[in-house]
Amino acid sequence: MKKNLFLFIFLFSSLLTSAQKYTYEDVSSEPASKNKRSPSQDKLDVNKLRFGAFIAPSLTWMHPVASASDDGRYHVSSKGSRAGYQWGLVAEYYFADNYGFVSGFNIELAGGKLMSTANTNHVDTTLPNTVISANMNYKLQYIDIPFALKLRSDELPKTGMRIFGQIGLTVAFNISRKANYDVVYNAADTIRVTASGSNEILKGTLATPPIMLQLNVGAGIEYPITEKLFFFTGLYFNNGFLPTAINPQNFELGYKGSFTNPNTRLNSFALRVGLFF
Q1: How far apart are CA 30 and CA 61, in angstroms?
Q2: Can you count the helices (H) and strands (E) in the chain?
Q3: Which of 101, 179, 192, 232 has the fewest beta carbons under 10 Å from its own?
Q4: Helical H runs in the chain?
Q5: Rounded to the nearest 5°, which phi and psi values hold at 26?
Q6: Pairwise CA distance, residues 136 & 269, whole Å
Q7: Which is nearest to 181 in space by CA: 116, 90, 107, 97?
Q8: Coarse DSSP helix, strand, coil percentages of the chain, rounded to the nearest 5 percent
């Protein structure tokens, strides 16, 4: 986890340092030369590039795409959201006055609650090592890399404020996966028992996918503080769509038997507050 985090911070810092090394020349003060290329021909136009940092309280939840698992053995429902947070860095490059590309990275603390209950039409709840019900509270952490198109308005009169919106895709890399759980199951002698755990690491192979894709949508405002410093805030929605966010058949926790879920998406709302430099 720490190695991945340090790698992303190093790469982003390197990009920021490289951008800061660009210098500007007033080409109009020098005689034109056919053999000399202008800085804009050789270098990135840093007037169109800016960096920022933000923090965002968030609300995340896990949404089953169906009320029952694909094999019909368990009924599954969402039982609540999880309060979390995000923080990160953002980079924007404007190819036109009001249109730009957005990227960067952020750390996201996410999760949600799911309840799975055996469908007695498909599960014999009298057999040993059979899960009767599972109440799971997932605690997941990701490094998110967004790629989005941003559109913003002209400066509003007097205030200089701009309104913006953006849409794109986020690639999310899982760096931590834990859960609190209460699972009711039949022991070997068919006596019903409850197994509980707190902050248990989900060790099973592909218990959660290492990479997830999300649709990201956001809207908000920017407000100038100085000529180069801008405050911004906005509401952002991430909708997970590929692949499934959880696979409980592969859990290795303190209970006997296994249970199944339908495909489950991880969604979130986040309220970002930050500065562009």
Answers
A1: 59
A2: 2, 10
A3: 192
A4: 2-20, 39-42
A5: -85, 95
A6: 21
A7: 116
A8: 10, 55, 30
**pTM for the complete prediction?**
0.79
Q: What's the rounded Cα separation, in Å, for the pair 139 and 145?
A: 20
Q: What is the pLDDT of residues 182-241, one digit of tens each?
A: 999 998 888 999 999 999 999 876 788 889 999 999 999 999 999 889 999 999 999 998
- Identify whether the C-beta of residue 76 lies closer than 8 Å to the C-beta of residue 115: yes
Which tens digit of pLDDT belongs to each residue from 89-100?
A: 999 999 998 999
Q: How many angstroms separate the CA atoms of 261 and 252, rounded?
A: 16
Stretches where the chain sits below pLDDT 50 are 1-42
The predicted structure's pLDDT at residue 18? 45
Strand, helix or coil at 22? Answer: coil
Residue-wise pLDDT for 241-252, tens only, equals: 877 778 888 888
Distance CA 53, CA 90 (A): 6
d(CA 56, CA 40): 36
Q: How many CB atoms lie within 10 A of CB 98?
A: 12
